[in-house]
Amino acid sequence: MRYVSLFSGGGGLDLGFERAGWEPVVCVDNDPVSCETLSHNRPDWNVVCDDIRNFDATPYRGVDAVVGGPPCQGFSTAGKGDPNDPRNFLWREYMRVVSEVQPRAVVIENVSALTHRRNGDHLSGIMDALEDQGYTFAYGVLNAANYGVPQGRRRLIVIGVRDAEASLPLPTTADRQPTVGEAILDLADLPDDPGFNHVANRHAPHVAARWSMLAPGEDDPNYRRSRLDVSKPSMTIRAGGGYGPSGNHLAGFHPPIHPTLPRQLTVREAARIQTFPDEWILRGPKTIQGRQIGNAVPVNLAAAIGAHLVSLLERPSPA
Ligand SMILES: C[S@@+](CC[C@H](N)C(=O)[O-])C[C@H]1O[C@@H](n2cnc3c(N)ncnc32)[C@H](O)[C@@H]1O
Fold first, then answer.
1. Cα four-point dihedral sign 72, 73, 75, 78
2. 9 CB-near residues (< 8 Å, 6+ apart)
3. Is 13 near ligand 1, meaning CB less than 6 Å away?
4. Residues taking part in catalysis
């Protein structure tokens, strides 16, 4: 099974699809560092580092699927959520690529806020475009923790298929969600290792002292961050932006607080919570590494979607 990967980022969706037996014929992203990550880890992948608006997909006509998560900053409830953010309209480019490739299947991933009423025009635009192009589709908000990911992360997944019946993958770990402890505790005593994306932040002593007092799962309202609980899934790992002591918005990577140490997670620990394999190295400065991780579809969720898509396409088509 071959597919066109759009908005590939740091490769979470692609790694999951690879695990499910898919092969990307091309990965498109306009962020040079994300492209570097993809090429560094998979030198054989055809990575096109360009704006999707410049991408001609006609050479890929007939490939089995088009897969990707258009940027979501304008929709996200975590960001400012500007309805006129031009990035909100990139799904039209996604659908233009679909019309050029004419695949049997499409997968669109986005933040659950796309289902909110104020973003409704975009979601109905996507659905109308799928219908116009002859797809039936299923969509819903899936929680990654129900698909083998130690993280509560709710994301909208749209699966569209031609000549088949669309549905979403069933949960696999709803009754036993993986925990933070299982995912990261073995890394706690590891020394800093930049080549492994594992470099601990040196927080100011008063911040470390404050965080060392937090109980598992307790929130620090000043910094709007919580300490993780080893016995539960993590809260959502976000791409960027955090809060300073007076509620001021900060750029950068601000993941949750480690469950047993008075510091935030390293990029590697956040990558584990996103179920990236340790062999996958994030390129770029630490903040950009973190952004790629926070933006990613958790690999285990992506693998569940990829495997489900194979089963849909292999089923005999409905009469
Ligand atoms: C949500 S992230 C994708 C994450 C990825 N699916 C994963 O699982 O790791 C969205 C990506 O879209 C890329 N992007 C944003 N605007 C773009 C554009 N105009 N053309 C191409 N890529 C774009 C960003 O660089 C970012 O990597």
1. positive
2. 29, 31, 34, 69, 292, 295, 296
3. yes
4. 72
Question: What is the average per-residue pLDDT within 231-260?
Answer: 85
User: Which residue's C-alpha comes closest to atom 27 of ligand 1?
Assistant: 9
State in Å: Cα 291 to ligand 1 middle.
11
Nearest-CA residue for atom 18 of ligand 1: 51
Residue 296 Cα, ligand 1 centroid: separation in angstroms?
Answer: 9
CA–chain centroid gap for 41, Å, is: 17
Extract the tokens encoding 31.
């962020």
Over residues 173-197, the pLDDT tens digits come to: 999 999 999 999 999 999 999 999 9
Domains present along the chain, CATH in parentheses:
2-173+294-314 (3.40.50.150), 180-285 (no CATH)
**Cα radius of gyration (the chain):** 19
Q: Is the dihedral of CA 58, 64, 66, 67 positive or negative?
A: negative
7 lines ligand 1 (CB under 6 A): yes
